[in-house]
Every structure is written in structure tokens, then in C-alpha cells.
Amino acid sequence: MLPGKGIPAGFPGSVLFCCDHNAIRSPMAEGLMKKLYGRSAYVQSAGVHSDMEIDGFTIAVSHELGIELSRHRARSFDEMRDWGDDLGQFDLVVALSPASKHQALELTRHYHLEVEYWPIMDPAGLTEVRAEKLALYRQSRNQILRRMLDRFGPPTEPDGIETVRRALPQDQLPHP
Description:
The protein is of the alpha/beta class.
């Protein structure tokens, strides 16, 4: 930990989460990271494409944990560049889908970036039954949450600790 900060040594200063459309997995990851770790890192999300709006089920399962995503606007890597965002500013790019992994690895040709691949299930379109759909979205959200805890350690925000308790069953909570 860094002295007096509660931030683990080696914690990235900036993180970009990416997936296919920036409508499900990467917004969830961005919201979770901000909820658990506050301003410990600059966090953004992007997609290979930005041809979709934020998914309603993503909003719902994030809201269950006190994460507000209804105002999220999908954006692509290209739009980030067009809007003046320097993709080379990120210390870490976390790809949550195969297509975004490929796109992130392409970025390493131009920028010095660390890229990690977290294969997270895409819950969209797997069922039409609302209760089953919500369960699949929660499963993807919790996969992201577990990977985040493994990678970045316990939450640094008091709110984040409660978020983890609400999301994960008691037997899956990280050990102190």
C-alpha cells in the first residue's frame, strides 16, 4: 500500500475498459471501478464500435449496486481519438471481448500500453425471458467484479466494500 492512501503499490494511474459496443461490459467495468476505487485511477470505457445505446439491463444490474449508468453514452476508440483523447495516456487497457482485445493490441503498435484480456461473457441475446436475462447480466457483472478484486485488491472506498457484499454471495467474498 502507498503510505496513507490505501492504494496498493503498482495500482495503475489510468485504466481503459473496452468491449465490442461500449454498451454492456465496459460501462459496467468503468462504473464498478469508480465505485470500488474512487479517484484512485482515471477510468474510461470504449468499444470497438459505438453503434448501440447503453443496454437497459446493464443499467438495471448496475443500479442494484448503486452505480448510475443511465447517462452513459457509448463511444468507440475512433471517437475517442476524434474527440482529442490521447489513448496513449492509459497505463492499462483491459479488453473484455476478443474484438476489443485485438483493437487494444493494435494500439500497442503506436503507444506503450499494458493490455490485459479478461474474457467476460456477453449476456446479450442469450435468452428472452426477463428473469433469466437479468441473471445473465448479473453473472457478467460479477465476473468483472471478481477479476477487478483479483487484479486491483480490496476496495479503497467505504461504499465499495458494501457494493462487493451486495454483489457476491458470502462464500465468494475476498478474504482480508
